[in-house]
Design a protein that fits this description.
By secondary structure, this protein is of the alpha+beta class. It is 26% helix and 30% strand. A five-stranded antiparallel sheet has the order 2-1-4-3-5, with no helix packed on it. Helix 1 (72-99) crosses helix 2. It folds into four domains: 2-70, no CATH class; 76-149, GMP Synthetase, Chain A, domain 3 (2-Layer Sandwich), CATH 3.30.300; 154-214, no CATH class; 228-268, SH3 type barrels.
Length: 269
């Protein structure tokens, strides 16, 4: 029976399954694996587990293998690649300014064997970077790939600190971006001020999705806003929910506002 190991190539990147072969691997071990782009440097994120189906998603396509454990030469190669990435980033910025291209370069990645450089950028529209590619090929003499990504991907790759004081979620642990809507903020009773519910990318914060389903489940037991309820203090209309404390605010017929627990509601109409 073959064993499947989860390998991650970036700190908060997607985890990919590989056939661990005969290697005994622990979480955090650095390995060299076979990919469609050639050999790559990765880190064990999920320890090997026995699996009957050693194919990609059960499609019948065999998993790629763990080639070997990373050695000193591999770490030296990775450091060399990092230096190349820094040089390529600086030179590309100079070229972009010279050509006056409307693009924001934010990251450069080198393949492990240093045969290709990938330049990640954001832009409001399409960019004609053919001349830029020619300049980069002439400078580095290797394959060049330009990849335009969304603003959320830029935040994930660059990282940073969120308004909560912690590392932003997309950079720390989120593997895939899910849909985030303003409805999620409304359901949780949050301020709808864009500056308060937007992340560094300028989009709605991913953390709005974390407790959304729980709020929906809890609030399904609450009488709706505007519903008429009867309490021992008299009749009134629901004006606000206090989901955290399982209470609701009611405006009585005499104009008085009170806040009571759900167990104090006698009838709802």
């Amino acid at each position: 029976m073959k064993k499947i190991v989860g390998i991650r190539f970036k700190p908060a990147g997607k985890i990919y399954d590989f056939d661990s072969g005969a290697f005994v691997l622990n979480r955090g071990d650095h390995v060299i694996v076979e990919t469609e782009q050639g050999l790559a440097f990765g880190t064990v994120a999920v320890v090997p587990v026995p699996c009957d189906d050693s194919t990609v998603g059960g499609t019948g396509k065999p998993l790629k293998m763990v080639f070997r454990l990373a050695n000193k030469e591999d770490f030296h190669q990775r450091e060399k690649n990092l230096n190349t990435e820094k040089q390529a980033h600086s030179y590309c910025i100079e070229c972009i300014n010279e050509l006056r291209l409307k693009m924001n370069l934010f990251s450069v990645e080198s393949s492990f064997d240093a045969s290709k450089l990938t330049f990640y950028f954001t832009s409001e529209g399409r960019v004609d970077f053919r001349q830029l590619v020619k300049m980069l090929v002439k400078k580095f003499g290797i394959r060049i790939e330009m990849r335009q990504v969304g603003i959320r991907n830029q935040a994930k790759m660059c990282g940073g600190i969120g308004r909560c004081g912690r590392e932003i979620c997309c950079s720390a642990f989120i593997e895939k971006f899910g849909p985030v809507s303003i409805r999620m903020a409304k359901e949780q009773g949050l301020s709808l001020n864009p500056t308060k519910i937007s992340g560094q990318c300028g989009r709605l914060m991913c953390c709005l999705t974390f407790e959304y389903e729980m709020y929906k489940k809890i609030k399904s037991q609450f009488p709706k806003i505007g519903a008429t309820v009867k309490t021992k203090n008299g009749k009134g209309k629901v004006i606000r929910h206090n989901t955290i404390f399982n209470r609701i605010a009611i405006r009585l017929d005499d104009g008085q506002d009170i806040e009571v627990g759900l167990d104090k509601i006698l009838t709802v109409s």
